DNA sequence: AGTCCCTACG
């Protein structure tokens, strides 16, 4: 039999015109593809329900293609494997792979393995994923970063998996896989997520040594991870930033915000201020959030002169302070004992169209209480309610601490009872203070009454309350044994 | 994304 395709194009044309015998239709390429399509359609139609008869999927594949007298296609195998993975039929995947490896001759497309590796990963079958990755070459497939990345995703999902990464990378090298930027990215993401920023930096350096340029997103990610670390020094962060800038990294607003937040949390408000100066030098206008954080940092450091400068500067830059900015500023005024100025800010804010919120009032209430101006504190609390600003547990705690601190234990008791009736609270250290105070004034009976009420309302007394009551029980004849057992029993059930 | 309070035990 002469195959038309084996002949030169010119003679092919000659034969078509003058041939004496028909070319076998079954040997033409298009017919083979047609039959393979038919077989694939028949496989899809006659596929047994995988939930009940997964073992019949492979025989159906073989049968369908045999019927059409063609070899099975990679797509048909992918269909069978996808059907099995959709229904989590682990045990029936192995025979399909075995046949794909030993019987079939075609080059298996890599995406089939990437899909399977991901599937094993989702079901925590890390070892299956690794085994398949190592086997890929036996399927006449040249693996690339596609399958490697699929495996890296799986391994990066757990700490145990992450430990296997170095071995996999060495093996990938032997398998001829070239690491892509995406592969590095997966590793850096994973390391940052578990707080191993130092290793993430190593990987980034390794990436750049491999000829990849500086990646802005990776830089930002590492910087933000450094800023989330509790133990990293501010110097480290600035050092890293400087190094990256030398390599061409241009930090954006978000990067600088992260650095400023980090500095302020470390109590380095003046360093944070320097970051703002650096931003301006680079032509980036810090936003009101950056300024609010810096203002907060500078006030925490007690540099109120700088704080005023910072506030003026943001106004000069045309930024509009919002309630966060005002709250920070008012807090600064209160720390300088300028409570009157702080109270005046409330009306200024309202004139400027910025409504004071719960936090604004809490700051001022605390300042008034600290100054012993409890009557004005009560007035302000009333005022805030009138202005439609609700109170919260903090507000009550501030008031209770104020009443107690002023030495008005009677009023503190009344207030505490009100709180227990009105406020949803599980624990409040101020309650302990009241009980402690009562015991030390020889008022253990009142203390006991409040303690009972706390337990009644499901509020847990702290160690300080229990200790005070136990110590005063000796000198207080009215506390009987039954009272104690009656109290201790429900206490056991407390959260 | 940033403000008040501080979320107690080893």
UniProtKB/TrEMBL annotation:
Q: Does the keyword Repeat apply?
A: yes
| Keyword Repeat among record annotations | yes
PROSITE patterns from the UniProt entry: PPR
Alphabetical list of Pfam families matching this protein: PPR (PF01535), PPR_2 (PF13041), PPR_3 (PF13812)
- What InterPro entries does this protein's entry cite? PPR_rpt, TPR-like_helical_dom_sf
Lineage, top-rank taxon, reads Eukaryota
| Keyword field | Repeat
Gene3D superfamilies the UniProt entry points to? Tetratricopeptide repeat domain
**Family label:** Belongs to the PPR family. P subfamily.
Fetch the NCBIfam families from UniProt: PPR
Report what the protein is called.
Pentacotripeptide-repeat region of PRORP domain-containing protein
Species of origin: Malus baccata
